[in-house]
Amino acid sequence: GSRSPSIVSLPNSNINSNPVELINQIFNNLMKIFPIFQTRFNLYSQNIVILLASTLVLSSYAITLLGFESDVYVSSSISIFNKLKIFRLFWDPSHLVTSENYDDYNSILKRLYIDLYIIDTLQSLSFGTPKSLNLGYEPSIVDSLFPNFANFNGASGVDFDLTKNNLKLGIILSKIGSSRNFANPRLNTFLTNDLKNKYNFFSNTLVKNSKSQDQISINFLESLLSKFELVGFLEEVSQIIQNDNKIDEELAYDFQLKSLRIVKKHLEVQSTLLKSIKNYTNSIETSSIISPFLPLVFKQSVKALNIQKIIINSLQINKDLITR
Q1: Nearest-CA neighbor of 180 among 192, 196, 168?
Q2: SS3 of 260, please?
Q3: Model confidence, pTM
């Protein structure tokens, strides 16, 4: 019979200079392929499934890394992952990732699912939207997804520390995204205390590794906690003012002094974070892993600086505080 026309169009050479358009065309082709793939799922090898899942994750990650909104890519990818029942792979406690099977079907797809979970988080936190995936994973799950090569001959040089640290921070950020209440967007004080505990655990994990990118992760987490402290204090002051129309001069001065101390602390944390980014970018190689958090770091830094500027400007009327 006659050959059916292909539904997949090759990328147009005219859009090669625009990575977003190129990724968009690749992604659209994947969306066209999947319905056919789904009806013949049993005919395809596991390698094809891995290729499809990897391409979806990489496409979503590339858009996120460029700093663009990728909710359509992420939500569509999550839908395909769920139709492939990849989440069920976590239900089998008998499958343990070892040095012998770390690149098999189950191990790779579980890591890709966590990758997509974190990309969804980066999208959510970057643009202030609800998360599409709320799975409740703990950072400790990351260790179960990678083998320990300490006593494995032939792969003693394999080092997953950098990847594991990024994934652990991603899951901590996922907890932040999942804990937001869009019906009442006030700061959750319980979340802040919980994050402080998570920070202690996470910092103890990272302190053993001196790689510069790890310092971005730990400094970014500290920056977020510092920001929560500042926003929480401002909400506390706002609530007091709403409940008491008359604020005496001494209490107002105490508020100003405390806000100045918190802003100063946050500026120091921000400075440390930006220095770690500078050190990382100065030492980066073309083969190095690009930190997936850089776009979010820059956006959060700009927002934090805007808040600090408003506070500092409001304190200019108090000459006693200007020199502090």
Answers
A1: 192
A2: helix
A3: 0.78
Ramachandran category for residue 136: left, alpha or beta (phi over 0 → left; psi -120 to 50 → alpha): left
The predicted pLDDT at position 117 comes to 93
**Amino acid symbol at 145:** L
Indicate the residue type of 238: S
What pLDDT score does 156 carry? Answer: 44
- CA distance linking residue 314 with residue 308, whole number of Å: 10
Q: How far is CA 72 from CA 28, 31, 44, 84, 132, in A?
A: 11, 11, 26, 18, 11
- According to the model, what pLDDT value does residue 245 have? 67
H or E stretch at 286: none
**DSSP designation for 304:** H
How far apart are alpha carbons 38 and 16 in whole angstroms?
30
Alpha-carbon distance of 324 to 311, in angstroms, equals 14
d(CA 146, CA 160): 8
What single DSSP character describes residue 132?
S
Place of tokens 């995204």: 177
* CA–CA gap between residue 199 and residue 305 (Å, rounded): 22
Cβ neighbours of 306 (radius 10 Å): 10
For residues 23 and 182, what is the distance between their CA atoms, to the nearest angstrom? 31
CA torsion sign for 81, 86, 88, 91 is negative
Residues in the chain: 324
C-alpha distances out from residue 132 to 81, 118, 135, 203, Å: 13, 11, 10, 28
